[in-house]
Every structure is written in C-alpha cells, then in structure tokens.
Amino acid sequence: MARKNVKRLLVTGTCTGVLLLAVVNSSPVDHFVGVVKQGTVEANLPMKESTDERRKLIAEWRKTREQAPVDARIDPVWKGAIPGYYGLAVDEEKSLARMEQTGLLIPDQLVYREVPPSVTLDQLGAYPIYRGNEQKPVVSFMINVAWGNEHLDRILNTLDHYGVKTTFFLDGSWVRRYPELARKIAQRGHEIGNHAYSHPDMSRLSAERIRQEIGKTQAVIKQTLGITPRLFAPPSGAFGQQVVTIARQEFGMKTILWTADTVDWRNPPLQEMVNRVAGKMGNGVLILMHPTDVSAKGLEQLLMIAKQKGLKATTVSEVLDERRLSAP
C-alpha cells in the first residue's frame, strides 16, 4: 500500500513539473519575464486606460515637456538682433495614435510639433547680428579670408575630418586673384559669405563706396562660384548703420559680427587662443577666425570642446535659423 502511494506521488509530481515547465516556457510568460527583467512591465503590457484617461496623462506630461517659442529681439547692450527660437507643443492626436500603435503609455511616445515665434529675425529690420539664440545648441567657426592661403588646406582638412560645414567670408579681390582656392572652399560644401572687396574700414566709406565694395564682391563670387551670398561680414568688424542698411535693403544681406574672437591675426600662443574661445563657447556663439597658423593648429581642439559641450559646429545660417535642430 505504501509503495503504491509513493508511486502515485512520484507520477503526480512528475506531471505537475512537466506542466509547470510548459507554462513557464510559453510565449506570454516569456514576454512577462522579459519585461520584468527590463523594468518595463507597465509600459509593455496592454494598455487598460480609456482614451479620456490617456488624454489626462498627456495633459500632465505636457506641463513639463512643452516649450514656448522665443521671439527675436534687439539686445539692449549690443544693439544687435538676436534670432528667435521655435517652441515645442505636444500633438495630442498623433501622440494617442502612436501609443495605440506601440502599446506604450509613456512620455517618450509623445509626438511634438514646432511652434514658430511671433517675432522673427527678418521682422526686426536692419541690425547687425552678433550671435544666434541662446537656447539653440549650435556654434559657428566662421572664417574671414583675405590672406593666409598657406593655411587653408589644413583648416579644410580638419573640417572634413570632423564632418563640419562652416561659413567662409571671402574678400572679393582675393576671389579674383585665387579663384581655384575659392572653388575648393565651395566644393567642400561650405557656406560662402561676402567680406567686401578691398578690406576697407566700411564705417568711413560713402554710401556709393559701400555699394561698390559689397556689389563688386557679390559679382565676382557669383561669376566664380555661381553663388549669391546672403551674409556680409564687414572687414575688422568696422561698420555704421549705413552699412547695415545698404547691405539689407539693397542686397538682401544680413550683417554678421561675432560673439567670440580668436584674435588669431596677432599670432597668440596656441593654448591662450584656445582658452579664450573655450571660455565664451556656448549656445548660439559665433566665433571669428582667419586662415592663420594658430587657428589651423587649434581648430581641432576647439571642435572637440564644442562637441564636449553638446554643441553642433555648423554654418552661420544654421546658427541664425530659428528652427530647432530636432524635436525630442
């Protein structure tokens, strides 16, 4: 009798073990165990909330995730124009549809749309521009070229190596003398700006001479490169309101200055130059450079510092663009 009971218990235990093994190895349980291990049970299990309940959750999430647009403005100290910046708003219907599709009820599933500012850079009128918006994580290493040919290749190769496109402001007489170098810059995919024709002090010129300096450079760049620049950088940063007004109203150009200066034309020690710029590097900063030996040597360090700070090195036009780099 005792032997029969033992045998019966053994058979029952074996059957139970087989059954449990089959259940544990089934797909639903595998999925459950997997999501438990990942700490995402709530996110991956089927949503039980009603649409109204989901809308309430979205309304709560949007309080901390939406960002209001920033209007373009005139800086009260520099008297320069600063671009606006697009905001972010949650698209509720697209967010609901996405959650329904993925089965995930988490903030990462929110879908956003960009909201333009009420006041844009172009609406402000004829003002110089020293920087981009402080909320946009971009910088530009803009390079003014009227001399320094021997250092251009090193600069271009460094930019290529890091996949960076920037803005070169070209002196018109330099383009006329060195058309092949100008073409090389453009062919590498860099933005081309106007740097006047003969590197004068634009603040001391008559209206007619201002037109000549800008117009001759526009013409030679167009003839040589097939490009019509939309940005003007006055030589040595010398300008008056007449310069800014003529550039904008007669040539459709923005007048560009800078936020941080390498002062590379003085040939400072390399680390001194790098430290000077690094200390000012931040969102929307425009950095002035020339094709000098110290800038050719220091460009790689500066690009790495920008990357470490979470900044995209890009063209001046992209820095001034009021659209966001990307939505979350």
Explain this structure to me?
- With 328 residues, the protein is α/β, with parallel strands linked by helices.
- It folds into 2 domains: 44-123, no CATH class; 126-320, Glycoside hydrolase/deacetylase (TIM Barrel), CATH 3.20.20.370.
- Helices cover 46% and strands 12% of the residues.
- It contains 13 helices and 12 strands.
- The strands form 4 sheets. Strands 5, 6, 7, 10, 11 and 12 form a 6-stranded parallel beta sheet that branches. Strands 1-2 form a two-stranded antiparallel ribbon.
- The protein is elongated and about 70 Å long.
- The model is unreliable at 1-45 (pLDDT under 50).
Instruction: State which percent range the strand residues make up.
Output: 5-15%
- The name of the CATH superfamily of the largest domain reads Glycoside hydrolase/deacetylase
Poorly predicted residue ranges: 1-45
Structural class: alpha/beta
Count of the separate structural domains: 2
The whole-angstrom Rg is: 30 Å
**Oligomer type:** single chain
Q: Average the pLDDT over all residues and give the rounded result.
A: 88
Q: Per the principal axes of the C-alpha atoms, what is the gross shape?
A: elongated
Care to count the β-strands?
12
| CATH class group of the largest domain | Alpha Beta
The biggest beta sheet reads: 6 strands, parallel
- CATH fold-type name of the largest domain: TIM Barrel
Count of alpha/pi helices: 13
Through-space gap between termini: 72 Å
Helical amount among residues, as a percent range? 40-55%
